[in-house]
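[SOLVED] Need 3D model of a two-part complex

Original post:
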Amino acid sequence: MTREVLNARRLLCPLPVIRTQDKVKTLQPGDVLAVECTDPGVMQDIPAWCRINGHKVLETRADNGEYVIVLEVV
Amino acid sequence: MSRFFSWLSIFAVMSQQRKAVALISGGLDSMLATKAIMEQGVHVEGINFFTGFCVEGHTHAIRKQDSDKPKRNNSLWVAEQLGIKLHIIDIIEEYKQVLLNPKHGYGANMNPCLDCKIFMVNKAKQWMAENGFDFIITGEVVGQRPMSQRKQTMPIVAAESGADDLLVRPLSAQNLPATLPEREGWISRDKMFGFSGRSRKPQMALAKEYGFADYAQPAGGCCFLTDEAYSHKLVDLWQARGKRDYDLDDVMLLKVGRHIRPKPNFKIIVAREDGEARFMSGYKKEFISMNCASHRGPLVLIDGTPSEEDLLLAGQITARYGQGRDAEQVEVTIRDQQGVERNVFVKPLLAEQIPEEWFV
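Solution:
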């Protein structure tokens, strides 16, 4: 299992979702990915993308204009 | 025994579940078209193309005035409602040729709708071939849109995209020639529809029948290129640079801020909201930026090649949009791309000193 961080700051939706989708394709089940963003819309969209594709959202957090979604590849 | 196995293999082929890829825009039509095919037992997955000009997404979400709108990506939301996978594809680079050289020309603004539809269906066809799918679904309706969804242009989309009779438009199928999936019996023509024209009533009735109570109703389409103000800003950018080209940052920055071009060699972008300022602050390493030091005021980016005199004029405009607009003098911080700051004192411009033609 690996833990990776994806920098999706400054990107507006749906680009953070696209970058997440492309990154997840390179990972294995059980791997964990933290996506760091500045678009508040990711708090809705990346979890929605995870639900559609069967991945697990482990954590979402917002702090001073930064948004982080941690997901586990299933 | 061998005859048994050959019959078995024929039966397996006949009973094979067919797979279709649906172009999902996030609007109602593609949602209904997809549902109509899913109802026939076909496995459907969605595809959504991101050109950079999509209204969909959260460009507006960074502005306070839109904060009452749901902050969701409608194509993802539609896929979730339908229970299908959605593949979002970045086509920003490839799309340049569609926008810059549209074979069929532009619509009312800089919208190359017919070329865009042909391009997207062609991309879907490529995706279909690469992923072992059988046909393509779109939510097109005959007569729904003045450029790309006319009776005369729908065969052009099918032919020039190369999708030909693998392109199924379930909402208007009964008005169009039978496609291969219909002729082969993969789907039934009787279970599709004969919608036409600009009325939304048949779609709304079908949505009710399918139990869809909530759906996006984009006004004026789903693309910034259909927007007059946006198109004007794009053309201004090309004129100022002397060439018709753009990158993603250009596309994004045209969506935010108040754009003012006092002279051909530079333009200023004034943040209108805190959300825009936060977004624009990510560009401080690419542009000269300014803000009021002595008063509260917006973040401003300077695009182009301003002289020192131009920067002072930009400072006066920056001061005009801050809380010191009525002050005799405002201190403005000018920051270069390396982050080196210096402060200048300027007299804010009066509203009447900013001619209407400066506003892009």
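Edit: Chain B has two domains: 19-223, 256-358.
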